[in-house]
Design brief:
six-stranded parallel beta sheet, homodimer, 517 residues
Chain lengths: 517, 517
């Protein structure tokens, strides 16, 4: 058994069953081990952003890590943006990065680079294996580190000779840590705030937006009058009929300030005190209202559902029925294709237990309202703002949940970043329906251009914010990667194409050509 | 005038005329400045790997930097792989990376990351602007640093408030450094070696492979019997009729050892002592023969052409006519599409003064031999091994040299990494003909799999090295981005398609479906 085989067996024994990869020469022994050790599924991506985004999507739905296999520093570099998103989602990822043999590193061959330097900013744990004998134990620790809680990207750098030299065998799995019990003084402080009679809000994220946690939060809301708010972007949120609907902190700072206006006690549940996504001239970046006390109920890694349950009990509300969304049938839409009619088409057809991977940006703003009463489903958001998460994350979610339909709502600008992941959807035969909202511009930037005070864009500036000249043909792009597709330029056409896509086995892409607006 | 305008004007005044960009909210004032200051061309890429690869290709052909404009850490991350190649090419690049406003950075908003951490491994110079008043001077220094010599990636991090706050005005250009004069003891040592009567070789790169330097090297070769060798991958090399043909150090270590066997004096001209591209079990990584003395004639930044001229003079060979390649007409090929027949088609049609961007990998192995007698042209190689350089570098080369035809010879696996750059070719109407060598596998990895001793690949391993299931349809991919194309599956068809592409205005793509082999 060589180091690569011991590594792979250790990963499998620790419950890591999928390897998303784009390997190179220095990773060939790991690749060979896929056939020599049982239990690891290899999934090829044609670009590393597709690989790491898939690992993120997988982790969010499976609740445990996949591993990656990336080729040296440049391969890691190509995957960093989606690892940034994974970091912001607290997704567990075992990020295996091949490296030159230990004795080859100092020679500065062309592909040599500072791998640990690239990995540091996105990783909660980084280690370079230094011998084939040690790599199995390193891998066991990587899995443990990745799982947290909270989850993180654990980067294991694998010099080629630690893969090809002889090893003893696999290392046993290390125990996963449990969520930490809530901190009683923090629970007490939050309870005192909720009992104060002053306006309160709970800002929620992480374990605080799991289904049971949201039920407890609803009881708190009913008993105390506290406002519930989710962070603007959430790694995973249960929604739809039968679930507690969680309003979100709005994206634009002035709307977020509005949502928090008058709040005297802000209770943070796996969330941080709110800040605006970007800075704007003359506008405060910190969104907590002046004079509002901030109480941290739980930090990441603490048991937010338990803390919320304690609060509900403290308010004598533990037996209140939570306020849940009723099933609401949405009629198929008609007319021009707008964010509203597109949302209606989705809401009318969303299958039960679907997974929505949401990177729709401006075209998706009506989606949450319209789907609140759809059959129960999960939504995965862009947590780190690094666009190009959607198509890959849909790959990972579909592999984690082969019995569930995945619907990827995707902005055209974002989709182009990691369009290569469509090929993996075709190769793996994944039940993913992708809707590309084709407005042929970076629409959010045209809004932001005004908001940052860079008024009166001239023709050169506008050119940098437009995706036209030439228009992208998404149906052709999908066909080029083996994914069937349709173009839809009306609400009726989108509804028909969605019905077709959601009923077809394997991937399907719809280019939703939005009405100018 | 705000900081962004002062920055832009400083760049223009220093000779930076093209900005390759994929901006976001934090870069909107820079984008706005494109219309407010004259002289900067903005070129949009739909992914940052397309942006940085274009900046590399531009720098190699223009001999001066373009600037980039990237969106925060994740935008930089997406561009790192091609900045790694630029670093290995010693290409001057002014790499402008937007950042949150200075006061917003500490708030850890979702897009916050360690930008300097990401930039460090690829940059020769990194600075974060800290005020609008200072940003112009920072920009002038960035241009100076990028230009070297040797050239480097100079990363200027631009917090949003240093762009939007008021500035005094542009900063004057700083002087460019000249190449350092050759070091007399090093010239003397090389001369002594060349006169020793023992077998000598010159290993050449950088300024040592410019046209005049190669003529001097040819004189040295004729007078001393020394062998001339170029590094395996060169940022830019003049080739074809009328030029001195420079053989290359082979890629595979055992062939490289063969090329160097018996050499007693290895004279390095802007090159390092040779090492194998990858390590292999049981094989030495350092390729200098045992007992061979290594003499550094010039390091990067020293005047290699002058040093070579001094050597030629020292050998009384300054007036020898250099041995140059004769023009050789290659006949249009017939039969199956193989690396040999593909090379013949290229050689038969290559226009005078063409720029070949070479990322053909295994399918390109016959190209150098076949085109040695083609009309004079330049070739740009993949210097850093980070695949995905070709399509973007062709963008940059075409913008640097609008009067020259660009021919991008591209492997299918590599091409998929930054396929988005085809769209920029269409938008900018660039005269780029792309030949995708479609062998539907990572062919080099199938070779390397055996070479690293990971014998007998099983089906799971082979799956990770194949681009089939489904086959990519490159003509559809190109059409999806507005680039016309043809599929060619014979030598005749490739010849006809190349003739069409090279005669057409604007970009054209040929999927060359290689015969199984």
């Amino acid at each position: 058994m060589n180091g690569a085989q011991s590594l792979l067996q250790t990963l499998v024994d620790a419950g890591v069953e999928v390897c998303f990869t784009n390997p190179g020469t220095s990773e060939m022994h790991f690749v060979a081990a896929l056939d020599l050790q049982d239990g690891m599924r290899g999934v090829l991506g044609l670009f590393e952003g597709a690989v790491t985004g898939a690992a993120d999507g997988y982790a969010r739905m499976a609740g445990r890590p996949a591993c990656t296999l990336l080729h040296l520093g440049p391969g890691l570099a190509n995957g960093l943006a989606n690892l940034h998103n994974a970091r912001r989602a607290f997704s567990p990822v075992v990020n295996v990065v091949g490296e030159h043999a230990t004795y080859h590193r100092a020679l500065d061959a062309p592909l040599t680079s500072d791998i640990a330097g690239f990995a540091g900013p996105v990783s909660g744990w980084v280690r370079s294996a230094e011998s084939a004998e040690a790599v199995a134990a390193d891998a066991a620790q990587a899995v443990q580190a990745a799982q947290g809680p909270p989850g993180c990207v654990a980067t294991l750098i694998l010099p080629a000779d630690t893969a090809w030299n002889a090893a003893q065998g696999p290392a046993p799995p290390l125990p996963s840590a449990a969520l930490k019990a809530p901190n009683p003084p923090q629970v007490d402080a939050a309870l005192a705030a909720l009992r104060s009679g002053e306006p309160c809000a709970l800002l929620m994220n992480g374990e605080g937006v799991r289904e049971a946690a949201l039920r407890a939060a609803s009881r708190i809301q009913q008993a105390s009058g506290a406002k519930l708010l989710g962070d603007t972007f959430l790694a995973r949120i249960p929604r739809g009929a039968g679930r507690v609907e969680l309003p979100r902190l709005p994206y634009f700072a002035e709307q977020a300030e509005q949502a928090l206006a008058g709040i005297r006690h802000l209770i943070l549940v796996d969330a941080k005190a709110p800040v605006s996504f970007f800075a704007y001239p003359g506008r405060a970046s910190e969104l907590t209202p002046s004079g509002c006390a901030v109480h941290t109920l739980t930090e990441r890694g603490e048991d937010a559902p338990a803390a919320l349950t304690e609060l509900a009990e403290g308010l004598d509300a533990a037996r209140l029925p939570p306020q849940i969304s009723a099933l609401r049938q949405v009629r198929p839409p008609h007319g021009p294709l707008t964010p509203e009619s597109a949302a209606a088409a989705v809401a009318a057809l969303l299958p039960e237990n679907a997974i929505i991977v949401n990177e729709a940006a401006t075209s998706g703003f009506a989606m949450a309202g319209m789907t609140a009463g759809a059959p129960p489903h999960d939504v995965l958001d862009l947590t780190g703002g690094a666009i190009g998460m959607g198509i890959p994350a849909a790959v990972g979610a579909a592999i984690a949940c082969p019995d569930r339909r995945v619907l990827n709502l995707e902005a055209d600008g974002s989709g182009m970043y990691t369009v290569q992941a469509l090929w993996t959807q075709a190769r793996e035969g994944l039940d993913v329906t992708t809707v590309i909202f084709s407005n042929r511009k970076y629409a959010i930037l045209q809004v932001e251009f005004m908001r940052v005070g860079a008024h009166n864009p001239g023709p050169k500036a506008m050119d940098m914010l437009q995706l036209d000249r030439p228009d992208l043909d998404w149906v052709a792009l999908a066909a080029g990667m083996g994914v069937p597709g349709r173009r839809a330029d009306s609400a009726e056409a989108l509804h028909a194409a969605l019905a077709e896509g959601l009923a077809s086995p394997g991937p399907f892409l719809i280019e939703a050509v939005m009405a100018p607006g």
